[in-house]
Amino acid sequence: MTDVWIVVAVVGTGTVAIKGAGPVLLGGRPLPSAITTVIDLLAPALLGALVAVQALGDGQALAIDERLIGVAAAGLALWRKAPLLVVVAVAALATALARLVI
Amino acid sequence: MAVAAGNMRDVSDPPRTEPATWRAGVRAVGPFAIAVVGFGISYGVLARAAGTGWLAPIVMSATTFAGSAQFAAVSILGNGGTVAAAIAAALLLNARYGPVGVSVAPYLTGGPLTRLLHAQLVVDENWALAARDGGRYDRGVLLGAGVTLYVGWVLGTAIGSLGGRALGDPASLGLDAAFPALFLALLVPQLKTRPKLQAAILGAAIALALTPIAPAGVPIVAASAACLLGVRR
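ok -> structure tokens follow
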């Protein structure tokens, strides 16, 4: 019980510090233009990494499993301009069905 | 938007008033917030199953507000891991919010305490939705969408934590595929230029290459290095 609260307190404090560091130290002022051109690519770089790791990562290993079918179905739904909730539901449904079948 | 207007506007000139962009942020994030309520419910259920009690997951969602780190901390505790392992895993998963915080810093104005509080509202979803061309961010979209996601995340956690076990195993429901699908939906609108496509592919490659050798979270923050592709431009 107390273990849980230690985790809540330390992770909470640490996360506030990590999220706040940039805005508190650098906030409200423009960044140098050299940094801005790099930051322009930060969102695609991080989102590409998140998609890849969540689709293929399995702890410390890589695994090709039913999630990939879900992500492929989501990609198809995005290509057909489906609304977000449809995209997410299609991914979950395709993966759940694949788990039933495979 | 500024590009569509023919580059007539200066970067510092806000095209819309802030309350209007707040509302735009709330609207744009609506479907994401509904998905986040669902993720919050599954987090609450998972936490209860891990033996955290009903209150701790709700307090954690309200104070930490970072889904993947919270899932990791709770599942490590539930599988008999140590407090130190849970803390380290969660903070490493949140390491990406270091560079993310730098990217939005120019748009978080006000005193240090205001900036600290507003920074807590930044998560992957509103950060991606607020991204504009040229490394700029829309402050109103960032904050309006952030508040909406925060409410959805805490609300979902409370429903899952208090609502009990009706949901079953999230993996059998395919929820583990819902996460990458959501991020894919955030990524696709970003891929408007060749350098951005290259950055996404390189970021994914770096993260996958590091996954077998580095603890979770490190591969993601290391993928930030892919944006150094922008240096040569």
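The mean pLDDT of chain B is 90.
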